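Researcher: Can you fold this with NAP in place?
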Amino acid sequence: MHAVSLNYANVLGAMGLYPGTVPLAMDGAGTVVRAGDGVTAPRPGDRVAMMGDLGISSHAVVPAAAVLPLPADTDLTEAAALPCVLTTAWYALRHLARPRPGETVLVHAATGGVGLCAVHIAQAMGARVLATAGSEAKRALLRDLGVEHVMDSRGLDFAREVREATGGAGVDVVLNCLTGRAQRAGLEALAVGGRFVELGKRDIYAGNGIDPAPFRRNIVFASVDLQALAAGRPAFMAGLLAEVADEIAAGRAPRVPVTARPYAEAPAAFRTMAAAQHIGKLVLTAPTAQTEIALDPDQVPVVRGDGAYIVTGGLGAIGLRLAAHLARSGAARLVLNGRSAPGPRAEEVIGKLRAGGTDVRVVRGDIAEPGLAEELVAEAEAEGARLRGVAHAAAVIADGTVALLDDSTLERTWHAKTQGAWRLHEATGGRAFDWFVCFSSAAALVGSPGQAGYASANAWLDAFTVWRRAQGLPATSVAWGAWGEDGAGAHLAERGMTMIDPDEGIAALDRLLRHDRACTGYLPVDIDLWSAVMPHALESPYFADLARQRRAPEGEGRDTELIAMALAAIAEGRGAAVIAEYLSDQLGEIIGDSARELGPDVRLTDLGIDSLRALELRTRIEQRAGVRIPTKLLWTGGTLGGLAEFIADAIAAEAPSPEGGTGGTGGTGGAARTGAGAATGAPGAAAPASRPDGAEPEAAR
Ligand SMILES: NC(=O)c1ccc[n+]([C@@H]2O[C@H](COP(=O)([O-])OP(=O)(O)OC[C@H]3O[C@@H](n4cnc5c(N)ncnc54)[C@H](OP(=O)(O)O)[C@@H]3O)[C@@H](O)[C@H]2O)c1
């Protein structure tokens, strides 16, 4: 299809007002690409106009009889405008009204497509034309076309004006598209023996009756509906089209002014026509070059049935899960890469995928080494398959703080991630494929103490992603938090980290690819834990909103029951003992039930808790008791009892005194206080940690 035209029926159809069914477009022009069996004309390559159920599409299938051959030099945009309007006007005048030379023809709304064709045909038949139009500009156009008498179509005055213009006799022919009283006025304007041709459908389908009075003057009432004609009298319709085609071929067809807009602007064109703002015809032209259209992300295929997908680190935990997901989603081939031979888990997964019909190929080797990426691409494309996606999940994690970073640690962490990504970039160069996803880490997003090399390698992947996208290449990176169950970060679950459920992770990846995201952090954020373990992360502007939410006003978030219980116990001189019990319970929740049995003399450092869990304990106490715990208290050989003493003291110091102010309980008991100081060995540790100004005691820092 080169172009389709809009007819009023299409607009009514689109607005749900058409009485019956009507396609979005029903005439247009284009070039034949295929002819059905037995069709001798037209032939492929012929330029044609046509009628039928066309829609607004690139191709249409129509009966050969509904095709109007066009001279080779015809402008297809102009030709698209003609079939319906020219055939309608031709049928109405040549077959139904048949004005004789000198007779008068009134054409309503004469600057529309049918109207202009009718004016042209009536003039060609030697008739005197009178016409109506809805605006001065339109009326001026009709005068330019030589129309003798031009009137306003928006009122009923035309009937009187027609009588005046015809010396009171009335017109011989009315081509009507007006409704209601205007239709009746048209009938009244007919001369004796006049022919009234109804082109509109509204009154007919609405069952609006016609006053029989005008029929006293021997008038004929006819109606035109090309769809009904094509369905009911196809041979006649074919002959009609042939007559119209002859007119076009002979150069006798009218030149109807055409306003062309691209398919993409169809809604605006429909609105223009609905408001009758146009002159002549509105035509929609099909895109000729490739056009970008916005697709609903849910309709974007992440995995294609003909696609081959490369997964580096594909024998690792997440790599295998991704492979299973790609296979489930219909991938034809998977090329999985790792340096070692597949382990038992990998063997099992690969076996299942192959049994399910996926062509799974394992290519062993170091992705950072020259040639290996090319090998992966060649394997993906073997036997004519199409490379559709690349997932770069290969990684080696080697920890080391910035101070301890050396070339070899950096090399170990950067090798697979950065070199590997670069090799894949080079090996896939010049190919069009759907996605290239790098498995980055939250370590790059928020930092990760002790993982300087790993964090920077992942940050490189994020930057690489941005760089590729800037060149129009597919690229996505996801800075993952820790995945649960298996995988390189699974051990963090034991340390209280909130983990990504692997199924959720894979679903998230699918969604990120669907939405073609550039760089995304996907990590469960336990703001309390983070504030204890990685307070620096919360200082980043990235988390400013979350951190602000957490910074509750002083005192909020405290466990008032705990404090009341502690204060009651303190008043009875049992404060430290009760809080020690409470601490055992908290430790039980963090490191397991055995902690609940711990006595007050156990040293916190002997519990074997790592820094993450110690910080979690600290955060809990700080929040619930509203007491700030100096770090040293946890790490310099302090006991559970000592910690309890410290907390009891702090709560007591904060409690309202009978005289007002704080510190009214008179302390928690001298023995306990001394014990705390001695046990922690922290000078000043027994002093209340939560000072009114909120600052931590100097010695506790
Ligand atoms: N799991 C998580 O919680 C988590 C969190 C954030 C980010 N990530 C990222 O997600 C990706 C996958 O993680 P994962 O948990 O599945 O890790 P994994 O189980 O350790 O898998 C990584 C795989 O990469 C392979 N590999 C390492 N160096 C390679 C090289 N030079 N060439 C080819 N393959 C190499 C390893 O196999 P060989 O040693 O046999 O080569 C390993 O099977 C990694 O990039 C990781 O950084 C994971």
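Model: Folded with NAP in place. The first helix runs from residue 8 to 14.
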